[in-house]
Specification:
heterodimer, A: about 300 residues, mainly alpha, about 0% strand, globular, B: about 290 residues, alpha/beta, 7-stranded mixed β-sheet, 7 helices, about 20% helix
């Protein structure tokens, strides 16, 4: 079953290109002097993005009393800062297939991706990362597992076996991928991010989210690694609390104990401490789900 | 209806010899209906003294409406003593923040984390409810109806209209009339201007014939030239609002923290000497001003 590197490239080639508009939005919004006019133009030149922005602004999430009918209208109504954030969020969640035959549970996938995005953003905030950059942490968290979707979509039968192996042998998914496919999702995820020409540190944060062995870890890579482990930790602890699952408890403890030294140093606390100030995480994720619901682009 | 301006300063409290006449506390407006219902708009530092006065008669029952969560509109809340006392009933209303994905409770809880404040939100002992408002959703507080309208500021900001027994009051919160992002020669200019005008018309209709408006007027027209997009109004924008909506009385508020009493008087005189003012009565908002309707 191992797949060739060529097959990997082939899969990456088949995924739709990340629209030019998304690059432009990411580039524009990293500048504090981002011009409202430029941002509106980028959104307006991409019909899909326009529809998504309007759909979100008109959703119950915003609770507006008038219907917003154009991007300009949305800027006049809710302000450029809000639209900037909306554009980043909807732009980055649109390019993925919604279903697969491999049995990868897409709801759980999004929930986990969102949890990592939200935790990474909270970590960034806690570490004093500027507001402008915090959105990048959210996006990196949201996209860190994107390789899984590609496997599930392009090699569903093989990936089903990978998922089963991980389940039956109780081993982490990325190890099952490595053993059966020869590559894991962080690698192909990074290739997609490269294809989409995302910022370099975002690519390496996706590539390194299971290995964390790079020589010079950026704060973004460290945050994504830590956020991913924290999300797994919290999920297992919740399982243990719900049904007294001792295995979940011991896996959670393992995750905490096996955190690489550099991540631990950067984080400053064990994962159990991190979870204390993430007590409102579920609520945060529920809110962020409003963005994900838009990913079908309808 | 009695309206008591408890804090009229923008940005940061500025106590001192230069602010004795108009006051140094940040935004807080107390409204008491004829039936005694208590509505408070914003929790700037002006809310502290109000809380102390309310404590004289327990239990305290009140509704606090937050226009937006910038510091100068919430910084007094941790010092609002009625929040700490069991048996008091306090309903807090405001907008959910879709940019930072936070509701009011989260924002206030973060404001009261140990690194900022010695008591946590979870230790407030009053019966507190947090309510995320939707634009246009009217809330009934006793005999009064409070309706939020979204008006332009860098974060979502609700202006609140309070109506009771035929009396009507409106507070803008922080408000800068939207600016055209295009240049007159750009293709999008006219369409954008149409949207701005439409948005302004919605505000005008919303506050048509209101008895008293308290409006953000942080900058003079000269200062505004370098403060565009900062989210605050000018005397000109307030006058335009009053004229369009046929407002009876308008109070200029959210005074810039650098503004001394003398400067406020001087600027007021200059504005009042202008020709072509509407029939609205204009005043400078002053801490402790009581308006009876």
């Amino acid at each position: 079953m191992p797949i060739h590197h060529d097959q990997l490239i082939d899969m990456v080639d088949k995924i739709p290109t990340f629209q030019e508009s998304v690059h432009r939005i990411l580039a524009l919004t990293t500048s504090p002097d981002c011009s409202a006019k430029d941002l509106v133009q980028v959104i307006e030149h991409d019909p899909i993005l326009t529809i998504k922005v309007l759909k979100l602004v008109n959703s119950a999430y915003f609770g507006l009393s008038q219907e917003v009918t154009s991007v300009n209208h949305s800027v006049v109504y809710v302000g450029i800062n809000t639209i900037k954030n909306v554009a980043i969020s909807v732009a980055t969640t649109g390019a993925l297939p919604k279903t697969n035959k491999a049995g990868l549970n897409m709801n759980r996938f999004w929930e986990h991706s969102l949890a990592v995005g939200v935790i990474a953003k909270l970590l960034a905030e806690h570490k004093g990362v500027g507001k402008n950059e915090q959105a990048n942490y959210f996006v990196a968290g949201l996209l860190h597992d994107i390789g899984k979707v590609l496997f599930a979509h392009f090699i569903p039968a093989d990936y089903q076996q990978v998922l089963q192996k991980s389940e039956v042998e109780k081993i982490p998914l990325h190890l099952a991928e490595k053993q059966l496919l020869g590559f894991d999702h962080s690698e192909i995820g990074a290739m997609i991010a490269e294809k989409w020409q995302l910022p370099t540190d975002l690519i390496s944060s996706i590539r390194g989210h299971h290995t964390a062995v790079e020589q010079e870890q950026t704060p973004l890579s460290l945050a994504i690694y830590a956020a991913n482990q924290a999300a797994h930790y919290l999920e297992l602890m919740a399982q243990a609390a719900d049904n007294g699952d001792q295995y979940a408890l011991s896996r959670a403890t393992d995750i905490d104990n096996s955190l690489p030294a550099d991540v631990k140093t950067w984080l400053g606390w064990p994962l159990s401490e991190v979870s204390k100030w993430l007590s409102n995480l579920d609520e945060e994720i529920d809110k962020a789900l409003a963005f994900i619901d838009l990913s079908d682009g309808e | 209806m009695i309206i008591n301006l408890r804090g009229v300063r923008g940005s940061i409290p500025v106590p001192g010899k230069d602010t004795i006449k108009y006051g140094g506390n940040t935004t807080c407006i107390e409204i008491t209906t004829d039936e005694g219902d208590k509505i408070i708009i914003d929790g700037g530092s002006g809310i502290r003294q109000l809380g102390n006065e309310l404590m004289k008669q327990l239990p305290v029952n009140c509704s606090i409406f937050i226009t937006h969560t910038h510091w100068d509109h919430i910084q007094g809340l941790p010092f609002f003593i009625p929040l700490f006392v069991p048996g008091n009933n306090i309903d807090i209303y405001g907008s959910f923040d879709p940019v930072y994905m936070k509701d009011l409770k989260t924002i206030l809880a973060q404001q009261m984390e140990y690194c900022y404040f010695p008591v946590r939100e979870s230790e407030l002992n009053a019966n507190i409810t947090y309510n995320n408002l939707k634009e246009g959703e009217a809330i009934q507080v006793g005999s009064a109806t409070v309706t939020p309208l979204l008006i332009n500021h860098p974060v979502l900001n609700f202006g609140y209209k309070v109506e009771s027994n035929g009396k009507r009051f409106f507070f803008t919160g922080d408000y800068e009339p939207p600016l055209n992002i295009y240049l007159p020669e750009d293709e999008g200019y006219i369409e954008y201007q149409r949207l701005i005008d439409q948005q302004k018309q919605i505000l005008t209709n919303f506050i048509q014939d209101v008895d008293v408006v308290v409006a953000d007027c942080q900058y003079t027209r000269e200062e505004y030239l370098t403060k565009k997009g900062w989210g605050h109004g000018t005397h000109d924008s307030c006058i335009e609002m009053a004229r369009a909506a046929n407002i009876g009385t308008l109070y200029f508020t959210h005074h810039d923290p650098t503004r001394t009493d003398q400067e406020l008087d001087r600027i007021y005189q200059e504005v009042m000497s202008r020709e072509d003012l509407p029939s609205t009565e204009f005043y400078i908002a002053k801490e402790g001003t009581i308006i009876e309707l």
